Amino acid sequence: MKRFLRLVAFAFVFACTDAPAQVTAIKAGKLVVPETGATLTNQIILVEGARIKAVGADVRIPAGATVIDLSRQTVLPGLFDCHTHMAFLINGRRSRERGSLFFYDLTHTNAERAIHGVINSRDMLDSGFTTIRDIGNDANYVATDLRRAIDQGLIPGPTIVNAGRIIAPFGGQYQLQPERRHLGEPEYFYADTRDEMRKAIRENVHFGARVIKIVVDDQPYIYSVEDIKYMVAEAASAGVKLAAHAVTEQGARNAAEAGVASIEHGLEMSDEALALAKKNNVVLVSTDFNEKAWLAYDMPPEVAKRFYERGVDRLRRAHKIGVTLAFGSDLIFYAPDETRGTWTMSLVDVFVKAGIPPGDILRALILNAARLLGVERTRGAISAGQFADIIATPENPLDNISTLKQVNFVMKNGKVFKGAK
């Protein structure tokens, strides 16, 4: 009997032993290094399991490795979107929903929004976005469940750093009625005292948030510098960063002075506010729309054009001043001629319009974004030890940034999602 049990135990251990990791060798005709702006030629990227094992022109391809020939392509790290809303898919052609976030929140269940999240996540990965930061407005922690499903390999999608419920002064981003003062739930935590702020941060982290988002200034009363400093410290004590939605000049100044990790939008930022952000190492995630995106909010064409031009001007000034920029889309609408991924990629045109060089655009899409999300040690570069998040384009984006709209190969965590099999 004892011998039988030993045999059973041995068989169990043998069965549980991990099989050798799949080895893949990628032949890269050109390899872009966003950190330096260099383009290396004829490189071999050796991938073992989910991670990159070696990179170089003289790397030996082991026998039995799967070889992917991208010798006529330009290879680069997967892209980042630092301001997304995966659990939002508003159909702008349905007049009740057009432009109404409040209506969408009230009429869509967690389950339906999870389905939207699955669709959007797949489409983002298909366009080359291998890591995203979901910045809230995800019903009752839909993005936490979405992240877990992707991490477990149940559905395809980018790596997600999610925010959970947004913390804001009473009312959040809505105008409530006295008879229905709780209609902001579960999208927001209304936090006006230090105890409420602490509790909101702790509940978010408990339910899976990997970043904390606050709304500084969507009400006449706004968070003060000291309020924000308090929340930055509370978030840091739980090991997460704090992102601040700020659309007014004073709101952005308060956030920059308090030293948040990032300012989201910063629509009205003056040169002085931008300089303060630079001084305090605050990243600007400017979420600048093209005219098509502004029109999705049902704006008259002349207003959409004005908002677009205002964004271009602020983005140009931020770059000139030297503020660290990270790309973020903030798209929430359905478009019949776009996926969430293709529409997101089209917003790179705003950076081009602002006169930002391709190398700096790539850094906003990859290097700066990885550092903001705190994943730079494992993602955002093609080097040994990093997760194998790799994309390829027909041309070199340092020469033609628009080639990013033609991503034809996507590998996420060492698995090919799009392109060569």
Backbone shape? globular
Q: If you average the pLDDT, what whole number results?
A: 92
How far apart the termini lie comes to 49 Å
Beta strand count: 18
> Within the CATH hierarchy, at the fold level, what is the topology of the largest domain?
TIM Barrel
**Secondary structure category:** alpha/beta
CATH class of the largest domain: Alpha Beta
**Low-confidence parts lasting 5 or more residues at pLDDT below 50?**
7-17, 93-99
Task: Describe the structure in your own words.
This protein is α/β, with parallel strands linked by helices. It folds into 2 domains: 15-77 and 381-418, Urease, subunit C, domain 1 (Roll), CATH 2.30.40.10; 79-373, Alpha-Beta Barrel (TIM Barrel), CATH 3.20.20. It has helices at residues 2-16, 101-107, 110-126, 142-151, 194-206, 225-237, 249-258, 271-279, 291-295, 301-321, 340-346, 348-353, 358-365, 367-373; strands spanning 23-33, 38-48, 51-56, 66-77, 79-84, 90-91, 129-134, 159-162, 166-168, 188-190, 212-215, 242-246, 262-265, 283-285, 333-334, 390-393, 409-412, 415-418. A 7-stranded mixed β-sheet has the order 3-2-1-4-16-17-18, with no helix packed on it. Helix 3 (110-126) crosses helix 4 (142-151), helix 3 packs across helix 11 (340-346) and helix 5 packs parallel to helix 6.
Q: Topology of this structure?
A:
Layout: H1 2-16, E1 23-33, E2 38-48, E3 51-56, E4 66-77, E5 79-84, E6 90-91, H2 101-107, H3 110-126, E7 129-134, H4 142-151, E8 159-162, E9 166-168, E10 188-190, H5 194-206, E11 212-215, H6 225-237, E12 242-246, H7 249-258, E13 262-265, H8 271-279, E14 283-285, H9 291-295, H10 301-321, E15 333-334, H11 340-346, H12 348-353, H13 358-365, H14 367-373, E16 390-393, E17 409-412, E18 415-418
